Amino acid sequence: MKNFNIENALEQTAGDRNLLMEVLKFTMEDFPEVLNDIDVSFSSGNYPELSRHAHKAKGFAGACGAEKLYMASLDLEYAAKDKKENCGELIKTLRSVFDAFIKDPDVIKIINNTE
After folding, report:
1. Using the 8-state DSSP alphabet, how is residue 65 labeled?
2. How many angstroms from the chain centroid is the CA of residue 8?
3. How big is the CA angle at 89 (ends 83 and 29), to the nearest 5 degrees?
4. Regarding predicted confidence, which is higher, 115 or 64?
5. Radius of gyration (Cα) for the chain, nearest Å?
6. CATH number of this structure's domain 6-108, picked from the four choices 3.60.10.10, 3.10.180.10, 1.20.120.160, 1.20.1050.10
7. Whole-structure pTM over 0.85, yes or no?
8. Which residues have CB under 8 Å from 109's CB, separation 6+?
9. Cβ neighbours of residue 86 under 8 Å, at least 6 residues apart?
10. DSSP secondary structure string, 68-93?
11. Average pLDDT in the 49-70 region?
């Protein structure tokens, strides 16, 4: 599993690199807001809302080929549905995986249109 699977990402955008660049930019701009929503939901103990926000995070990740981010989001979504105690740790993992994704050299190349 990769932080960024460019083949999968290009498949999601029908091979359109410019569209992929826009999807990646959109994800990098808007994903932090989803993470904030996840934090607020978790802090308030609202597990149904936490699950919905994790599902949204999973959608972002799936749309741009972020395999590890997708799996971290999926893990959180299911843990929230089951109101598991490990949600806090899964949120930390999700943040860490997002940080690695945005620093991935291939993501940076596409965003900067240098590939």
Report:
1. T
2. 14
3. 100
4. 64
5. 14
6. 1.20.120.160
7. yes
8. 115
9. 79
10. HHHHHHHHHHHHHHTT-TTHHHHHHH
11. 96
Cα distance between residue 97 and residue 99, in whole Å: 5
- What does the alpha-carbon distance between residue 72 and residue 90 come to, in Å, rounded to a whole number? 7
Query: Whats the size of the chain, residue-wise?
Result: 115
Delimit the domains of the chain by residue range.
6-108
Mean pLDDT of 97-108: 96
Tokens of 23: 């999807």
Q: Which residue has tokens 């971290």?
A: 72
CA distance 67 to 61: 7
- Tokens in use for 14? 């029908």
Question: Tokens 């290009």 — which residue?
Answer: 10
Average pLDDT over residues 76-90: 94
State the pLDDT at residue 64: 93
CA distance 111 to 102: 10
